[in-house]
Design brief:
Layout lengths: L1 H105 L1
Keywords: Coiled coil
InterPro entries: SPC24-like
Length: about 110
């Protein structure tokens, strides 16, 4: 009867050990998960900050591009106005030349 009781105690002891191992494992897992969750929250916070910074930079560059496009349009209109002035100046010179020729003929 001693061996049967000893065998029974060993089975209980093994069962208890298995339960204890599962418990300890689950506590380690929960600790690990908690640490991972903290790290995840830190990472999310950092990426949100980086995203806001990048988004702000994109808006700044978009504003700079818009300003450059406005300057380009203004320069194009000045060039068009300058070429129109050049054309009018040339027409005026041609008219003055014709007038001079007509005066010379009249003399």
């Amino acid at each position: 009867m001693g061996e049967a009781s000893r065998s029974f105690d060993m089975k209980n002891l093994i069962s208890y050990s298995d339960d204890l191992i599962k418990l300890l494992k689950s506590e380690r897992d929960s600790t690990s998960l908690s640490k991972l969750l903290e790290q995840l929250n830190i990472l999310v916070s950092q990426t949100d900050g980086d995203f806001k910074c990048v988004q702000s930079s994109i808006l700044d560059y978009q504003n700079k591009l818009d300003l450059c496009n406005q300057k380009i349009d203004a320069a194009k209109s000045e060039v068009a106005a300058d070429s129109e002035l050049d054309m009018l100046q040339k027409e005026l010179e041609e008219e003055l030349e014709r007038e001079r020729l007509l005066r010379d003929e009249l003399r």
